[in-house]
Specification:
Organism: Lithospermum erythrorhizon
Radius of gyration: 19 Å
Number of helices: 6
Shape: elongated
Pfam family, one: AMMECR1
Helix content: 25-40%
Strand order of the largest sheet: 2-1-3-6-4-5
Protein name: AMMECR1 domain-containing protein
Order of helices and strands: HEEHEEEHHHEHEE
InterPro entries: AMMECR1, AMMECR1_dom_sf, AMMECR1_domain, AMMECR1_N
Structural class: alpha+beta
Length: 212
Amino acid sequence: MVSANKEMVVYCFDTLVAHYNGDQPPAAAFEDGHHPLFVTWKKAVNGAEHRLRGCIGTLEARALISGFKDYSLTSALRDRRFPPIQAKELSFLECTVSILTNYENAPHYLDWEVGKHGIIIEFTDPDYNTRRSATYLPEVVAHEGWTTIEAIDSLIRKAGYNGAITESLRKSIQLTRYQSSSFAMNYNDYVTYVKTTRDCAPTIDGARSAVR
């Protein structure tokens, strides 16, 4: 089984830096494959706490190299919940890559474990008779400290449903649980990695990036 690793995160940072320079990133230093994947960007606030800055991926398998290249930019620049990440924010960023595995259809909407499983919910909106869906990666629910029911209700809202959340609605959910392999790295560690392996620091517009 393919596991998320340092080189995948480096490639995401490389891709974002290359975007700001109007260039192409260096070749990926990991083997390709086909898996569902996500790229998450967080930004350090007040010198410590990391807050979500963008998170987008795919629940369908796709090539890892092109997938991380595409979603590193999509999550950084086109997550509709946030303004695009600017180059001046680089030194405050942390990137996490996730590879999703072990998809299983759960018989009940509570048949999953916080911290172990990510979940995908699908249900029919009783007000508009339309299908809705949403997902949380395994680390999201654990980080928020939610119970399983709190996570389900939050996902129902994330899916765009604004009506009353009833037990009947919860029981109508088709739930898919999955697991993930993830790896995180902050910008300072990325800079150190690039200096060590390439004998130079990342640059933006020809100026040496600030290392904080």
